[in-house]
Amino acid sequence: GAELSPFARWNVLRPFVHRYYNRQMEVYLRREIASCFKAHRDKDNRNAKTILGLAIDGYQSSKESKDSTELDQTFIPFAMAQMKGLILAGHGTTANTICYVYHNLSKHPTALASVRAEHAQILGPDPHATILQNPHVLNQLPFTLAVIKETLRLFPADSSPRRGNPDFFLRDESDKAYPTDKCLVWSMPQAIHRSPKWWPRPDEFIPERFLVPEGHELHPVKGAWRAFEFGPRNCVGQELALSEMKIVLALTIRRFSVQAAYEEWEEMKGMKPRDVAGEKAYQVLDGTNRPRGGFPCRVTLVDE
Questions:
Q1: pLDDT-derived band of residue 1, with 50, 70 and 90 as boundaries?
Q2: Would you give the end-to-end CA distance of the chain in angstroms?
Q3: What's the pLDDT at 162?
């Protein structure tokens, strides 16, 4: 696949293209930061609850001079770096996960029927109008959220590295300690999420495991689901990502049917059939964890 191609990895034009688009993004973000700061300074509350608005408000409140008329220049590169991560990381991981949600639902028609029934009951015939009128209605889709979480368990969108410390040790089941100083500690949710130690029937798609009460054999162990990592350094964009996925599903899942077309794609490309543990849409690492081949599929309209 492309993940092993030296031509894809070492493209001589990539640094120049990267520099160009990075400059374009920084121009845009500087303009947005300046606009948001002006609104903050003028007591205009329209941007108060945006990510930038909250960041500027928090930064300004931590300074001695809370009423400065100019934005501290040390804040701008910090804010741009955070916004780049939020925009780019959030876009890729969300898109990849949506592909896997369609894929899982296409292989499990009972779960697909349950999602569609939930949307019909809660969102009505016009989900677009319903969500615009009351965005909080997205919080009333428990089975949809369970499907997304189960998809992220089976196909985590990303993993998380951490820098080791002299006073931090990893311990195995025999209590043997492993130092982490001068090491990069990489949490691998793929291994944790598929471990029978933490998950009954780990390779099965069972959204109900996120709906059963505590004490049920399928109920997740605390800390075992790490799609957005866990604890104080978890992903700040997880609520945004989950909301985006619910919106996309709300607007599409009753209108379209999505079926993977790997056999057709392999034949068209002249490739030998390939799978991992029977799964043709296995993940490849290309910046983030993506479906192999970009998830070739057939999309058809659902009969009314």
A1: very low
A2: 39
A3: 83
